[in-house]
Amino acid sequence: MFQPIKRKKLYVEIMDQLQHLINTGELKPGDKLMSERLLAEKLNVSRTSVREAFSALELMGVLESRPGEGTFISTVSSAEEAVRPLALMMILERDAALELLELRRILEGESAYLAAERATEKQLKKVQDCLQAMEEDKKLGIIGEEADADFHVALCEATGNRVLVNIMNNVSDLLIYTMKKSRESMFAKSENRDKLQKQHRNIFQAVMNGEPELARKCMHEHIDFVQEETSQPAEYSYENKAE
To answer: Domain 94-230: which CATH class?
Structure first.
């Protein structure tokens, strides 16, 4: 019945300590943290462990990295607070992240199919605007997880199915968290930026042309690609943390 208790990973222990300091008020919103190097020395751990803890907490909205300035305690909204447990599960449990992709494949494949049949000109324009925002993010060299999530939600809205839209809206914050994590991993390969953008263009083109089968196929290929790439370890971290 019982399973052996495994020791926590170091970065999880670091996360626990930082979260405790925040909960007790010793660290407050806006406070600047010491650098990865100094914190690693203080805790007698590797900088890699500290970096992993910072990345996970940043993904959850607890920390905020400001290029050239450092890492700070951020202020989060109640909506972000609500999604934290799910975001943490996605970070710590690889199977949970894969299950989310599996759910997306089911829901979004059919969303693309229905959108190709039902989308109005106004809805198509919104999806196109999201695609353009993704193009701009790509040119600026930023991760662009919010525009990516907006694209998928807008595509879902184009189905006209209110239940489906409600489901997507409820998980949209979680999508942003997981998309950021997956993009950081995928962008270790520079060519993946172009591949992702092309996949989104193909999805939109099929929807705009009213080709439901092709739209579903393009969406499945996109999500399968993300799953394949994120199941492989990244060669290096996408973001350079301030020292």
So the answer is: mainly alpha
- Determine the Cα–Cα distance for residues 190 and 76; give it in Å rounded to an integer: 31
Domain with CATH 1.20.120.530 in the chain: 94-230
pTM for the full predicted model:
0.61
Total residues found in the chain within this entry: 243
Give 63's strand partners.
Answer: 73
Instruction: Using alpha carbons, select from 130, 143, 137, 128 the residue that is nearest to residue 188.
Output: 143
CATH 1.10.10.10 segments of the chain = 10-76
pLDDT digits (tens, 9 = 90+) for 100-148: 888 899 999 999 999 999 999 999 999 999 999 999 999 998 889 889 9
Question: Any alpha helices (H) in the chain, and if so which ranges?
Answer: 10-23, 36-43, 47-59, 78-92, 94-118, 121-140, 145-157, 162-170, 172-186, 191-208, 212-230
Instruction: Assign residue 32 a region (left: φ > 0; alpha: ψ between -120 and 50; beta: otherwise).
Output: beta
Report pLDDT digits (tens) over 15-47.
Answer: 888 888 888 889 888 899 999 999 999 999 999
Report, at the CATH architecture level, how domain 10-76 is classified: Orthogonal Bundle (1.10)
| 160, 118 contact by CB (below 8 A) | yes
Which residue's structure tokens are 């409820």? Answer: 170
**Per-residue pLDDT, 235:** 41
